[in-house]
């Protein structure tokens, strides 16, 4: 018995060292306690008889307590019965008192063995009640513990009956062996249950994962042993289709990546890093997959299966491509940016790219367009310039936007005649654009440089092209600005913001009034320009504000008032209008200082602006508002000293009355 108990204890201790389950350790201590019982029995020959019985009882009691604790732990019952603790205290006290006072053995040992029997009965009943959990092993241990417990109840009384004592030992031995075997069965059953639950849990996780989880056998035959349901969402094919046709593993791979897949299957691949491949969806769309692959090998190191996780990373790849695009392309025009151009610039400096040409282009008047019509209009002009430049060059030429309004083109292995021809193509493309578009006028200043050999560095070549381009820009800047301003005026007329009849009437009123004031001829010419261009800044005001029929909001009022500043910038940029730029800025100032944008008052306002304000108001009242001349004069008189110069109002009324 002692040897068998020690062997069972050793087995449980080995299992505990392997799997670290607390109930296994407890059952190992149980087996050790049962093994010590017979040792105390053998001590009858050389120790006092009662001492041997006492030691045997203590060993059995400790083993029984560990047995019950192991059962509770195995069944995952956390709350242990409190009666065990009090029973041990009472049994221990009874044994000590009985042993010390010389009572008969059967009397003072009865509480201890009764407690052991109770522990056995408690454990046996508990296992039988939980047989659905513990199975046949639980039934075996449960009945063996109940029989052993009933046997122990009479143990102190049959100690002196040799025949009964022998049968009692035999029954106890059978029960002990049965319990040991049953506990091992319980353990292995739990291991099997845990594996089943673990497999079910991981299968559930694999089946419900968004990534594809698979096990692909490649030897001796190709077949999927498992592939998760996510494959349907990712590829359009169901798991059943993969099970029926393992060759789908090749059919979903993009043709250009089949060689990589062949390396993966044959083992000629580095599996330590993820692999990115293109797959083809069932509907024909291509997408990107990232796979983590683990090869499964046999004892000879030969790969016979692949396990892995595949994830759709199409969105990530698109984002990376977008970032790569942004790192080398200009976001507005789609051309290469300055960083890329500088890299190409250094690359093409090599002699092998000669003859080499560089062409630089600058968009004339872009700042004026941005300041007057806004950056959306400026971007439209940039795109028009981009199109004109792009259609003028070959695919191998490097076209880049290197500044706000600057473009550069590198022409490798290009003779001088073709470089000059490219410049002519740019000019022709710009002309075609202006002929077919009545909107913003496009003008490009172009300069180029050329080298036939490496005698000139590319830096010097770029500098020469830059100087030539700016010389061209200075040469044409005045005429270009005038053209842009005239086009802005045409745009204003097209939006019906400047009526030709209104301009003619206003010029007539102003010139007649200025003559009565004794203006010189050159001042009359500037007044006529002011009458024509004073509202040119409205070209930069949104239509929703200009055409609004109701009252403007405070925010819309501010947008409307900006037309004075916009008109000022336009006039300043044109040599024909520069003389009236300050008047354009101030033509909405009021005599009492409540005008805009500078809040000038009285004679701080230029005389020409005060004249324009009166004439413009009179024409608006008599034509747009359909007032009679008398009503308009009455309204002017009412506003004299508030909006208008009172002295000029009186003289204007007199000049109108005379006519």
Short account of what is shown:
The protein has 659 residues and is of the alpha+beta class. 63% of the residues lie in helices and 10% in strands.
For the secondary structure, the number of strands is 9
| Inertia-based shape | elongated
- Proportion in helices: 55-70%
Helix/strand/pairing category = alpha+beta
Q: Point out poorly predicted stretches.
A: none
Q: Tell me the radius of gyration.
A: 51 Å
Largest beta sheet: strand ordering? 2-1-5-4-3
Mean pLDDT: 80
Write the layout of secondary structure elements.
Elements: H1 2-19, H2 22-42, H3 49-74, H4 83-101, H5 105-108, H6 110-129, H7 131-153, H8 155-158, H9 162-208, E1 212-217, E2 223-227, H10 230-235, H11 239-244, H12 248-251, H13 258-266, E3 275-280, E4 286-297, E5 303-312, H14 314-328, H15 338-347, E6 356-363, H16 366-373, H17 375-390, E7 398-401, E8 406-411, H18 416-436, E9 444-451, H19 458-494, H20 500-516, H21 521-533, H22 543-546, H23 554-573, H24 581-586, H25 607-624, H26 629-639, H27 646-658
Antiparallel strand pairs: 1-2, 1-5, 3-4, 4-5, 6-8, 6-9, 7-8
Helix pairs in contact: 1-2, 2-3, 2-9, 3-4, 3-6, 4-6, 6-7, 7-9, 16-17, 16-23, 17-18, 20-21, 20-25, 25-26, 26-27
């Amino acid at each position: 018995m002692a040897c068998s108990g020690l062997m069972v204890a050793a087995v449980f201790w080995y299992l505990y060292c392997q799997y670290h389950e607390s109930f296994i350790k407890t059952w190992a201590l149980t087996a050790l306690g049962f093994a010590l019982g017979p040792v105390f029995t053998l001590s009858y020959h050389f120790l006092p008889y009662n001492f041997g019985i006492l030691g045997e009882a203590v060993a059995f009691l400790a083993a029984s307590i560990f047995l019950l604790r192991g059962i509770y732990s195995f069944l995952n019952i956390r709350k242990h019965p409190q009666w065990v603790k009090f029973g041990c205290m009472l049994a221990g006290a009874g044994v000590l008192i009985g042993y010390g006072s010389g009572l008969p053995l059967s009397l003072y040992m009865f509480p201890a063995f009764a407690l052991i029997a109770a522990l056995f009965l408690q454990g046996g009943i508990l296992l039988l009640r939980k047989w659905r959990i513990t199975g046949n092993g639980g039934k075996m241990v449960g009945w063996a513990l109940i029989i052993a417990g009933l046997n122990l109840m009479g143990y102190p009384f049959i100690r002196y009956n040799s025949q009964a004592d022998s049968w009692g030992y035999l029954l106890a031995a059978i029960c002990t062996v049965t319990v040991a075997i049953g506990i091992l069965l319980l353990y292995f059953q739990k291991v099997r249950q845990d594996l089943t639950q673990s497999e079910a849990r991981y299968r559930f996780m694999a089946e419900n994962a968004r990534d594809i989880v698979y096990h692909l056998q490649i030897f001796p035959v190709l077949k999927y042993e498992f592939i998760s349901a996510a494959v349907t969402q990712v590829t359009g094919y169901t798991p059943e289709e993969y099970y029926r046709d393992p060759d789908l593993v090749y059919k979903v791979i993009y043709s250009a990546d089949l060689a990589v897949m062949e390396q993966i299957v044959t083992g000629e691949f580095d599996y330590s890093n993820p692999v990115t491949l293109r797959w083809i969806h069932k509907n024909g769309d291509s997408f990107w997959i990232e796979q983590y692959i683990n090869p499964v090998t046999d004892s000879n190191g030969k790969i016979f299966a692949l396990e892995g996780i595949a994830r759709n990373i199409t969105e990530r790849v698109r984002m990376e491509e977008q970032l790569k695009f942004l790192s080398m392309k200009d976001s507005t025009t789609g051309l290469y940016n300055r960083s890329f151009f500088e890299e190409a610039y250094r690359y093409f400096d090599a002699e092998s790219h000669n003859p080499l040409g560089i062409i630089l282009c600058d968009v004339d008047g872009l700042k004026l367009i941005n300041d007057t019509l806004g950056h959306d209009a400026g971007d439209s002009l940039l795109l028009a310039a981009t199109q004109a430049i792009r259609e003028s060059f070959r695919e191998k030429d490097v076209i880049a936007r290197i500044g706000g309004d600057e473009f550069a083109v590198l022409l490798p292995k290009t003779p001088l005649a073709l470089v000059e021809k490219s410049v002519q193509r740019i000019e022709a493309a710009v002309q075609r654009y202006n002929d077919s578009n009545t909107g913003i006028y496009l003008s490009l200043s172009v300069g180029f440089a050329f080298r036939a050999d490496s005698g000139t560095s590319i830096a010097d070549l770029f500098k020469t092209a830059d100087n030539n381009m700016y010389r061209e820009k200075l040469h044409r800047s005045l005429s270009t600005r005038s053209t842009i301003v005239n086009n802005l005026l045409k745009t204003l007329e097209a939006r019906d913001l400047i009526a030709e009849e209104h301009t003619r009437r206003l010029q007539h009123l102003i010139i007649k009034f200025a003559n009565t004031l004794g203006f010189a001829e050159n001042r009359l010419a500037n007044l006529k320009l002011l009458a024509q261009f004073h509202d040119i800044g409205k070209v930069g005001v949104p239509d929703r504000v200009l055409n609004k029929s109701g009252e403007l909001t405070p925010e819309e009022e501010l947008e409307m008032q900006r037309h004075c500043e916009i008109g000022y910038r336009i006039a300043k940029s044109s040599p024909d209008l520069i003389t009236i730029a300050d008047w354009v800025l101030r033509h909405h100032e009021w005599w009492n200082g409540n005008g805009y944008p500078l809040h000038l008052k009285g004679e701080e306002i230029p005389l020409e602006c005060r004249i324009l304000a009166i004439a413009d108001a009179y024409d608006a009242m008599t034509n747009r508002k359909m007032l009679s001349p008398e009503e308009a004069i009455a309204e002017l008189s009412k506003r004299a000293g508030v909006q208008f110069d009172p002295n000029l109002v009186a003289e204007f009324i007199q000049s109108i009355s005379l006519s």
